[in-house]
């Protein structure tokens, strides 16, 4: 009989949680936390009193900060020491509770291996399926601020986790915080939700400077049913993250492969602004970040990257173009008539240049040079002057050292020699 009662109780609890999950409504600043959320059991690890579950009600009556994170999020993990410092400073006047959707196995492995074993002071809810529905977000870290009265104050990035802001909510004052409102990247950025999905979008572009908290850093490609790219999106990234996709595509249209060493910085006053600039204490400067998106009609997909280049030249602080220039480069040549590189066949492999030894198996010479040219250590462009048309097999030890690479190539009747050639180069100058 007791077993039946227990089974019924568990079933009722399961149905209650299932119903709650289905009915969970997103909460926004100004909303009060519903009673059912206060009493929802949450599985936790690293609880200071070794509890296996808590409820938000355990912390009611003081500010609660929910720190949504994931084990794959580097900035989440680098922020743990700051969370620990702030929690220790404010003690029981505030609760900072981390929350992750990841399950017990993943979290246990994280806190016992590598970097995670240094952060076992982080009390975290695991296997969350409900809180993230009440506080939806697409990127982490994502901080939800709840005041002592149980109302949502704001949602922010972890940058806003400061002594000043926490003190303000403890003292029931309005903190100065930038709101993080996530934007879906599935639709064109900031396009009104009233725009009908079935209405053809003939042209759309947006380009702005500065960091937007509700967007991740990265890029997105839009393809039609035939696989043709008709839209490109780059968000919260430096200008080179916008220039490089254009260069790769335009070089390819010319039958060439683009690499970093095919770039010429034409007397730029502040070349460091082209790329990410680390901040002291972690993170990156935001003043040189951009977000951009372009969508073109599907009958103009071949012109997409030309339009992107035109937008860069019209609206960014830089002028970018491609031109032939005489440049010093390294030419891969054959030094012997004996064919020592002919492939024996088999499955194609290319582990250049990170593994040692690195191998190229049953692939063309161009694939070898593509990997080598992407290495920052190889300052000069490497070009193919072997006139070898078949696939090759080679094994190289320490391929990331240029002098050793030359020595290893000589075993195969190959060499790298410095020459001057006219090559297409990507040129970037101040506007």
Automatic annotation (TrEMBL):
It is found in: Cell envelope. Residues 1-24 form the signal peptide. Residues 27-175 form the Thioredoxin domain. It comes from Polluticaenibacter yanchengensis. The keyword Acetylation does not apply. This is TlpA disulfide reductase family protein. Keywords: Cytochrome c-type biogenesis, Disulfide bond, Redox-active center, Signal. CDD domains: TlpA_like_family (cd02966). The lineage of its organism: Bacteria, Pseudomonadati, Bacteroidota, Chitinophagia, Chitinophagales.
